[in-house]
Amino acid sequence: MAVLLIALVATPLAVPGILQEPDEDVRPSVLHLQEEDSTVRVLSVPGRTADLQLDTRIAHRGGASENVTVEVRAIDDESGLLVDQVYTDVGNVREGDRSLSVLTNLTVEREGGYRIETIVYEDGERVARGTRHISGVQALTPVYAQSPVGFERFENAPVEIPTIAVDPTAADNNRTELSVSAALTNSGDASAGDVTLRLRARQVESNVIAAQAQDEVGSIRAGRTVWQEISMTMPSNYNYYIDAFLLKDGVVVDTALGVANLDPTRTVDTNETREEVEFDTGDFAEETPGGGDDGGVPDRPEETMTSSSGPGFGVALALVALLAIALLTARRQTND
Questions:
Q1: Domain-embedded: residue 18
Q2: Structural domain containing residue 233
Q3: How many other CB atoms are found less than 10 A from the CB of residue 51?
Q4: Residue 133 shares a structural domain with residue 151
Q5: Does residue 320 or residue 144 have the better pLDDT?
Q6: Which of 255-261's residues contact partners 24+ apart within 8 Å by CB, and which partners?
Q7: How far apart are CA 220 and CA 163, in angstroms?
């Protein structure tokens, strides 16, 4: 026993490092996806497509992992077709417990929703897989249609304030001139402008465009609201929807709707349903210079009725002719 105890004590002293921890983790490597920590963000929306970046988080335990690869696929939710597929080479992962972040860029059509599948391979063998869904991609605003200037809605006002306000200023020869003003707000952090305000008056029951006008909007300071005013002339005694468009470089960036009630017998609201009423397209005809008092639309000639017969002779003349033919036929039969 004494010799055995001496051997147990002397052996570690004689062989240095026999009691130290091993330099390498001998446990098998384990990789799994941390789906709750993975994110998707929009890089850019150039037009019909959207560029997305996926930050895939991977948890690692145990020994070293070799030749790690991450595959990310975007699959259309409706059709099930593969839209984009990207492989990212992670390489070797050192031993120990750690978390990895793998960035992957995908390009998808700006419509519908997609199923994002993530697959992790170690040395060519699939070791982890996860799925997530994204939707509402069509709601992303393209870069060319982005502007901090938009119509002010006055949603928190104690009383209803229209975004598009109309004020009749003059009436002459069955036509009315309107002063139309729109509230525009710059919601950005710097001055902005270089947009165009375009208005059109659309007759409520027929959707006929009665008038159009536009004006350039100057620079608006950050956080400020301005009122842009435009004059329009249209036929009186009709009701109109005022369609307002805000354009930047020819692209619509915001829209609003107003109402002009010029018919004294009835009024309409922006959310009112249409109904059948009498409508005369002649009031919306293009004006021709040199016309009469009705704004250049020439009077229609009255229609007249004509007859191919003479004035009251037709029937009597026919009877006489028939009687003559009958007498002539009877005389010939008698002579024969």
A1: no
A2: 147-270
A3: 13
A4: no
A5: 144
A6: 255/151, 256/151, 256/163, 256/164, 256/182, 257/163, 257/164, 258/162, 258/163, 258/164, 258/165, 258/166, 258/180, 258/182, 259/162, 259/164, 259/166, 260/166, 260/178, 260/180, 260/201, 260/234
A7: 17
- Determine the Cα–Cα distance for residues 28 and 261; give it in Å rounded to an integer: 79
Residue type, 38: S
Per-residue DSSP letters for 14-67? HSTTTTSPPSS--SPPEEEE-GGG-EEEEEE--SSEEEEEEEEEEEEESS-EEE
Residue 274: predicted pLDDT: 44
Residue 175 lies in a domain: yes
Report yes or no on 22 lying in a domain.
no
Give residue for tokens 């805000």.
Answer: 246
Of 73-87, 129-143, 159-173, 186-200, which has the strongest mean pLDDT? 73-87
CATH number at residue 78: 2.60.40.10
Looking at the 3D structure of the chain, how many domains does it have?
Answer: 2
Q: Are 126 and 175 found together in one domain? A: no
Mark whether 166 and 199 lie in a shared domain: yes
Whether 116 is in a domain gets the answer yes
